[in-house]
Amino acid sequence: MCEVSGRSRKGLTGWRRYAAAGGFAAALVVADQITKSLVVHHLWPGRLVVVVPRFFNLTLCRNTGGAFSVLPDKPIIFTVLSIIAVALLCYLFTRFEGRGASSFAAAAILAGAVGNLADRFRFGYVVDFVDLHVGPWHWYVFNVADAAITLGAIALFVLTFVDERRRSRKARAESPPDPAGNA
User: CA-CA distances (angstroms) from residue 90 to 46, 67, 114, 135, 139?
Assistant: First the structure.
């Protein structure tokens, strides 16, 4: 394998992978907190800023519940669950040795959890502001942290599925042929 300044053909390894994924997570947390700060200082609940008519608005929502505003007004439950999730994600992050893309997907999920947890500690609720809709049909209002969690989870799911298929093919290719001729 060809080594060029600490990178192999398999990508980042060891501490470089952790540093890169950690930097990615930190950048997502900073982006999340900056956008939320701008929204909190320039919008108020109920004010709607139309960015793209009939598709994209900005509006300040104070989410005291969980994802999709489930169990509103139960912030302590979600603060505790968020702390547990961050601890679990930190552990899982270390389990992706040799899988750079999975590390970045886990880093996105971790960043989103940290961003929303920071809101819960600072405000007692999560600041949501992105309102996507098609005409009158609105999706739940969300934020950068929520997008990071969602995209990271989708990426992790796809990467896990692809990795399992690759392992299965490799195992079939390496297994000895069946002497009876059964497939």
Answer: 36, 20, 11, 40, 30
Assess if residue 5 is contained within a domain: no
Please identify every residue annotated as catalytic.
128, 146
List pLDDT tens digits, range 103-126.
Answer: 899 899 999 999 999 999 999 899
Considering only CA atoms, which of 143, 121, 137 is closest in space to residue 67?
143
Q: Does residue 129 lie within any of the structural domains?
A: yes
Domain total in the chain? 1
pLDDT in tens, 39-78: 999 998 888 999 999 999 999 999 887 776 666 677 778 7
Expressed as residue numbers, the domain containing 127 is 15-169
Distance CA 26, CA 33 (A): 11
Give the closest residue to 18 by CA, choosing from 105, 109, 104, 114.
104
pTM, rounded to two decimals: 0.79
HSE of 4 in the Cβ direction (CA atoms, 13 Å)? 4
